[in-house]
Specification:
By secondary structure, the protein is of the alpha+beta class. The chain has helices at about 1-15, 30, 40-60, 70-80, 150-155, 225-235, 240-260, 275-290; strands at about 85-105, 110-125, 130-145, 190-200, 290-310, 315-330, 335-355, 400-405. It is globular. Bound molecules: zinc ion (2 copies).
C-alpha cells in the first residue's frame, strides 16, 4: 500500500526530531491481571475517545468527558484553541502505543501507564471561520492495575461507567442518573496529560515519492510463532492457513483497486471502522487537492504469516506482504505530478487482521455476507443491508485492522 507510505513519510518530515521505531507494547503485563483486556478493544476505545474529546472541546462540554480526563488534561485541551466554537470531522491518521509500564499514584494506588501518540486531522471553528488542523499529540493514560476491562460492547461507549446512561455529571462529577461517582482511572482509563507536538494548517503533500527503505530488512517473526500456530489449530479444528491467507489476498486486491478508483465502497466490508475512516480520509484528501493516485499491474508477490495473538475476545494474525505495482499520481486533467507511468515499484508492509475468537469458518464467498449469504451490500457503518449484522468488527470473518510499514514494524 505504497501511497499511504509516501503520504506518511511526508507527514512525519515536518516533525523535527527523528524517531526510532517504537518497540511493541508488552500487553501481557496488563493481561496477567485483567483477563478482559484486549489490545483490539483498547485501540477502539482510544480512537473513539480522541474524537469525542475533541468534539466536546468544541461544544465546551469537556465536563461530560470527566470520567476519562484528569484536570491537567482538561486544561491542556482548553489551551489548544481559545475562543473555540466548534470542532468536527475528527480523523485519526495514526496511533502509536508506547511506554507501557506500572507506576504508583495517589488515590489509585498501583496503576498501568502508557503513552499514545496521535496523528490526526480535524476542523476547528473560530470566530465563525472553519480551519483544517493537522495535529500530532501525545496523550498519557493511566488505569488502576486491579481494574477489569469493560465488556466488548461497552468499552468504547463513553457512557456513565456506573449505569450506562449518557454521562451528565453534577458539579462534583457525580452521575445525575445513578448517583455514582468514580475517581477517573479507577474503573476505566483516564488521560493524565496531553501535549501537542505539532500543529499545521496545510494538508499533507501528496506529490513526492520516497523509496521503500525497509524492503530489504529481514522478516520479523514473533518468537512464539510456532507455539501460537499450534494453539490456534487446536482451538479451531477447521483452521486452514491457506484459506485464511486467500481472504487476505482478496482484501489486498480490493484495497488497491478501490483506492485507485477513489471509491472505497467495495472495501467497506473488509476493514475495521477506524482503518476505513483513515483510508477514507486519504481518498478525500487526494480529491480535495485535485489529484488521482493511479495503481496498475498490481501483484501481491508473497505473503508470510509472522505473528498470531489471541485474547479473550479476538484472534489476530499479522502477515508481511510483498507487492509490486505501477504507481503514479496525476492531476484531474491528467498531468503527471509524481511517480512513473511505466516503471514498477516494489514494497513490503505488515498487515494485521482480526476475527472474533473462535469464530467458525463458513462456506460463503467474499462477495456474500458471511452471516446470511446474501450478495454483499453494506452500509457505511459496516452493516449488511439484508440481515443487519455488523461485519466490520470481525464477528463473522477476518477483517483488516492495521497496516504498518516494514521499516516501522518492530514485532
Ligand atoms: Zn450513572
Ligand atoms: Zn447479511
Amino acid at each position: 500500500f505504497y501511497f499511504y507510505y509516501v503520504v506518511h513519510k511526508n507527514k512525519t518530515e515536518t516533525i523535527v526530531v527523528a524517531h526510532e521505531p517504537t518497540p511493541p507494547p508488552n500487553w501481557d503485563i496488563i493481561r496477567a491481571q485483567d483477563e478482559n483486556f484486549s489490545a483490539v478493544l483498547f485501540r477502539d476505545f482510544a480512537y473513539t475517545l480522541f474524537s469525542k474529546v475533541h468534539e466536546a472541546r468544541g461544544n465546551r462540554k469537556l465536563k461530560n468527558m470527566s470520567q476519562f480526563l484528569g484536570t491537567k488534561a482538561i486544561e491542556a485541551l482548553e489551551r489548544l484553541q481559545l475562543n473555540i466554537e466548534d470542532v468536527h470531522s475528527v480523523i485519526v491518521g495514526a496511533m502509536t502505543v508506547s511506554d507501557l509500564s506500572r507506576a504508583h499514584r495517589n488515590k489509585l494506588g498501583d496503576v498501568f501507564t502508557l503513552r499514545l501518540k496521535f496523528e490526526a486531522n480535524y476542523t476547528e471553528v473560530v470566530n465563525g471561520k472553519e480551519q483544517a488542523v493537522y495535529t500530532s499529540q501525545s496523550w498519557y493514560f493511566c488505569r488502576k492495575a486491579s481494574a477489569l476491562s469493560r465488556e466488548p460492547d461497552r468499552i468504547a461507549s463513553l457512557d456513565c461507567i456506573g449505569c450506562g446512561s449518557s454521562f451528565e455529571p453534577d458539579t462534583t462529577g457525580t452521575c445525575q442518573h445513578c448517583g455514582q461517582h468514580y475517581e477517573p482511572g479507577e474503573a476505566h482509563w483516564r488521560v493524565d496529560s496531553i501535549y501537542q507536538i505539532n500543529r499545521r494548517q496545510v494538508g499533507p503533500a501528496l506529490t513526492s515519492s520516497a523509496p521503500d527503505v525497509g524492503l530489504n530488512l529481514e522478516t520479523l517473526f514473533a518468537p512464539d510463532y510456532w507455539e501460537q500456530k499450534q494453539r490456534m489449530e487446536e482451538e479451531n479444528t477447521d483452521f486452514k492457513m491457506e484459506e485464511i491467507t486467500g481472504r487476505f489476498k482478496y482484501i489486498f486486491n480490493v484495497l488497491q483497486s478501490s483506492w485507485s478508483d477513489r471509491n472505497l465502497n467495495k472495501l467497506r466490508a473488509f476493514e475495521t471502522d477506524h482503518l476505513f475512516q483513515n483510508h477514507s480520509y486519504w481518498v478525500r484528501e487526494y480529491e480535495r487537492q485535485g489529484l488521482r493516485n493511479i495503481l496498475k499491474n498490481i501483484d501481491l508477490e508473497k505473503i508470510q504469516v509472522v505473528k498470531i495473538r489471541s485474547d479473550k475476545f479476538y484472534d489476530a494474525i499479522t502477515c508481511r506482504m510483498w507487492a509490486g505495482m505501477v504507481d503514479y499520481t496525476i492531476t484531474n486533467s491528467g498531468d503527471l505530478v509524481c511517480g512513473n507511468r511505466s516503471k514498477r515499484k516494489h514494497f513490503s508492509e505488515y498487515w494485521t487482521f482480526i476475527r472474533g475468537r473462535g469464530v467458525k469458518s463458513h462456506d460463503k464467498t467474499e462477495s456474500q455476507c458471511p452471516n446470511c449469504g446474501a450478495e454483499l451490500r453494506i452500509s457505511m457503518s459496516g452493516e449488511c443491508e439484508y440481515c443487519g449484522s455488523k461485519l466490520t468488527s470481525g464477528e463473522f470473518d477476518w477483517v483488516l485492522s492495521e497496516i504498518q510499514q516494514d521499516e516501522e514494524y518492530t514485532g
